[in-house]
Amino acid sequence: MRRSKFSLVQVNHLSPLSSPTYLAVLQSRKGRGNSTPLTFIRSFNQAAHFHVPDSPLKSRSFQTNCSSTMASEDFVVDDALVAKVTAYVEKYMSNYDASHDFNHIQRVLRLSLHIQSVTPKADRSLVTLAALLHDVGDKKYLRPGEDASRLISTLLVSFGAPAALADTVQAICLGVSYSSEVKDPARTRALVEKYPELAVVQDADRLDAIGAVGIARTFAFGGAKGRTLENTMDHFDEKLLLLEGMMKTDEGRRMARERTERLRLLKEWWEEETGPVGA
């Protein structure tokens, strides 16, 4: 479990917390060595909700201010939440083809955690959740009635996650898309600056699209969509060979160079074997 850095001074700036409820909860938390500021906020919120009908904590403006003030390092993510998310994603991805199955999620998670280990400004808990959930609501596989813009945040809240955490993970996952970056690079740059975890998960997802695994996934996706081998090979120039230049982290760029060479090698073999015989 990760301790919050959300200070009580910040809370005092957000709302007038001088009610009897505030004082009672403050007194009740004294001497609890395992308490965190976020635990305190939750306790106060519950007390205010049940005992003070006009509590400022119930106002929309307070909740909005609280969410906007919290940065990525302010969240507490426990193992139980990760376990629930993992079980959900494994079931959800069972409906996808082999190019975007749960094995892909596991590879992206491993790559993400590796990149995060050398990218300390990215929060490991947020990276974990975003890596697990980044393909939930993917427009290529979106089910009727699903709202991709809220699917992940709604899920996390249903699992007991704070709304601010859920919204942050949702924003990170929506930013992973390659096509979204191509359409609006400036927006992606702004998102990466706001959420360093996005750079980590995005690089990990793109690393799994290149190299030997990426080649296998490309043909699996092409087969699932009924594409010819020639059309699938066109995808190398249209997207895969461009990914190295779109990496955001130093480690992502390093790993992408090696995997991209494997793409180029296969492309050379393909052109050799499909060209004039004996040329």
Description:
With 279 residues, the chain is mainly α. The protein has 2 domains: 8-70, no CATH class; 79-272, Hypothetical protein af1432 (Orthogonal Bundle), CATH 1.10.3210. Helix content is 65%, strand content 0%. The protein has 15 helices and no strands. The longest helix is centred in the last third of the chain and has 25 residues, at 250-274. The protein is globular, with a radius of gyration of 23 Å.
Proportion in helices: 55-70%
| β-sheet strand percentage | under 5%
User: How many individual β-strands?
Assistant: 0
H/E element string?
Answer: HHHHHHHHHHHHHHH
The CATH architecture designation of the largest domain is Orthogonal Bundle
Assign the CATH class of the largest domain: Mainly Alpha
Number of domains: 2
The separation of the N and C termini measures: 62 Å
